[in-house]
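User: I'm new to structure prediction. If I give you an amino acid sequence, what do you actually give back? Let's try with this one:
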Amino acid sequence: MRSLQDIAEEYEFLDADDRYRLLIELGRELDEMPAPLKTDATLVRGCSAAVWVYPTGDAGRLHFLADSNAAITKGIVALVVAAVQDRPADEVAAMDVADELAPFDLKHQLSSNRTQGVPNMIALVQEHAARIAAG
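Assistant: Good question. You get back a string of structure tokens that encode the predicted 3D arrangement of the chain. For your 135 residues, that looks like this:
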């Protein structure tokens, strides 16, 4: 997966239609999430589409699997994952993920229906990280 900084640099120079295409492409680049991991426990509440996030790895290096049944939403969750992927659990739990995503200005680029679940995606990722960091 590309770094969030690399994605932001590309995103900055795109028009609205190309930004949508980039989000869809990012969603396609996510590691495959096996169907048995798409459970109620990994479901992100409050999203207009179904979104699942599952942590793997350990406290030293978290890795997240994520998926959605909607292409744009899958791209949004890919942005969230790019912000935290392969970092230590305690760092993920403490970081300001919303601030990391600020350059994408998602609230102004996408409809409120598409972005309403972003805080919940971030919260679920950070709850997973905090639980894993605590041992």
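You can read the tokens as a compact description of the fold. Here is one thing that stands out. The first strand starts at residue 51 and ends at 58.
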